[in-house]
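pinging the channel bc i need a second pair of eyes. not urgent but kinda urgent?? the chain im working w is below, pasted from the shared doc
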Amino acid sequence: MARREHFRAIGLPSFVAGFGLVSLLAVCLLTVWLSEGLGEALTRNTVRVTLFWYGWSLLLMMRMRQIDWRVETTMGQIARWCWTLGILSFLVHLGMAFHFYDNWSHAQAFERTRQVSGVGEGLYVSYVFTLGWLADALWWWLAPVSYAERPRWIGSVWHGFMALIFFNGTVVFETGPIRWIGLTMLVFLVGAWFAGKKPLSSTGNS
């Protein structure tokens, strides 16, 4: 029994981390091998991986207690890894988009954003989203107790902002499978939230 509990505490989070990294690499390699439109395929497939980990993160967060947010449990460790794999996948997605669509040029990215959304300044919102998610993940790794005890409104505002960005990026400004994946995931998560009625943040001071 003790060995089983030890595996759950150490093995499961490590397995999730390893699976996430290997699957991201596998998706990229298979895309390179099988796809003709390499740039578009890599950009789309990596955002699909991001959506997968983002969705799993939120599902776990809806069930987490304060002790889980402090990463003192297996669930907390797995949730943190899912959250981290989400931002890592998103950074890869962002790199693919900048490389294949924008030639690593801010000006080109600004113009492409203007053509897609009508507002080039929307690119700065993407920058805030990326840096904010990265900072949030780092905070959870470097100071989990502080992260768990942060005011609830911070987590609520941040997750609301992220949900809005994901909705715009996958449903409003996308077409095809990504739009339907994003819409299905959104409906499922909203249903799960109402069923559990738990905030996507720690239970610190309000």
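so DSSP finds nine helices and no strands in the chain. and Residues 2-196 form one domain. — does that match what u expected or am i reading it wrong
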